[in-house]
Design goal:
Layout (H helix, E strand, L loop, with lengths): L1 H22 L2 H7 L4 E11 L2 E13 L5 E10 L3 E12 L4 E8 L4 E10 L2 E10 L2 E13 L2 E10 L2 E13 L7 H4 L15 E2 L3 E4 L6 E6 L9 E5 L5 E6 L4 E5 L6 E8 L4 E9 L1
Antiparallel strand pairs: 1-2, 1-10, 2-3, 3-4, 4-5, 5-6, 6-7, 7-8, 8-9, 9-10, 11-18, 12-13, 13-16, 14-15, 14-17, 17-18
């Protein structure tokens, strides 16, 4: 009897310890609660080789006990239709992962497992079957500030690219507009520090876009200089390639580049002349 009592007491203490530990695991949840609020962003979706652009919306809410979140997402496009999605998000102390459950009217119903790579970089993925082939979806969400998010999704079927989506979200206020802080940032910047939209000198042109095998960089002779360069970055701001520009038209090979969106800048040592983004098909 004494032995059984001691054994039961150990179980009780262990259980209380687990509950206490769970209640005192703030990091993953605190980071998760940074999503709280309404967001809108311009999306670029490459789906089975076709490119679509639309505005994407997401609305995150903490539950009453602050133990998880509920999220709704939606967009409309004349070719894709109108998506409406519902998500439940929470932290599991047993496996120390964020569990992100998704269901929508496009036939999606799956669970992502995720974690924080850093306090500003959340990563999650899911693996399942799609018509007998392995389906993998990997998502990176990066806080560029409290009011700006970079969302990037890559999905493959049988190892082949199926979907590549990029959204730059901004937090919305009660009227559905950008917060005052974001309105002041008329030149919001992406992870590489360059402008999100094509901006800069009219003396420079980068084409074609979307691209397949090569990108051409055309500049006027008046901006040619010994230190003029063309640099390409992925959406996380990591430089992928850099070449020197020595003539009015320079061809940039896309060998080794996976399909998706990339950022670029034409610059000298002292300043950025031209910047933007292009898609590799």
């Amino acid at each position: 009897m004494t032995t059984k009592f001691k054994h039961s007491l150990v179980i009780l203490i262990t259980g209380l310890s687990f509950i206490t530990t769970t209640a005192q695991t703030p990091t993953a949840l605190d980071n998760l609660f940074r999503f709280d609020g309404s967001w809108a962003g311009e999306a670029t979706l490459i789906l089975e080789g076709n490119t679509f652009n639309f505005t994407y919306y997401a609305d995150f809410k903490k539950n009453n006990e602050s133990s998880g979140m509920y999220m709704e997402e939606w967009f409309s496009h004349p070719d894709l239709g109108s998506l409406k999605g519902y998500n439940l998000i929470g932290y599991n102390a047993r496996d120390e992962k964020i569990h992100w459950f998704s269901v929508d009217n496009f036939g999606t119903c799956h669970e992502h497992l995720g974690y924080w790579k850093t306090n500003d970089h959340f990563y999650m993925e899911t693996t399942e079957k799609h018509k007998g082939k392995k389906f993998e979806e990997k998502i990176d969400i990066i806080f560029k500030s409290n009011d700006e998010l970079l969302f990037h999704l890559i999905a493959t079927i049988g190892g082949q690219l199926y979907e590549d989506a990029t959204v730059i979200f901004h937090r919305q206020n009660a009227t559905g507009n950008k917060t005052n802080k974001e309105e002041e940032k008329s030149t919001n910047r992406n992870p590489s520090g360059i402008l999100k939209e094509e901006q800069g000198s009219k003396d420079c042109k980068v084409y074609p876009n979307p691209a397949d095998k090569n990108i051409n960089v055309q500049v006027n002779n008046n901006i040619l200089s010994p230190d003029l360069k063309f640099s390409v970055f992925n959406l996380l701001g990591v430089k992928q390639k850099e070449i020197c520009i020595r003539s009015a038209i320079t061809s940039f090979s896309l060998d080794g580049f996976k399909p998706g969106m990339y950022l670029y800048k034409v610059n000298t040592r002292s300043h950025i002349i031209y910047s933007g983004q292009f898609i590799v098909q």
